[in-house]
Amino acid sequence: MASYNEIPVSTLARLVGTPDCPVLLDVRIDEDFDADPHLIPSAMRQPFLDVRDLADDLAGRSVVVYCQKGLKISQGAAALLRSVGAKAEILEGGQFAWKDAGLPMVLAEKLPPSDASGCSVWVTRHRPKIDRIACPWLIRRFVDPNAQILFVAASQVLNVAERFNATPFDVENVFWSHRGEKCTFDTMIEEFGISHSALEGLAVIVRGADTNRHDLAPEAAGLLAASLGLSRMYRDDLEQLEAGMMLYDAFYRWARDATDEGHDWPAALKKA
Question: Record's InterPro entries (predicted)?
Answer without folding.
Answer: ChrB_C, Rhodanese-like_dom, Rhodanese-like_dom_sf
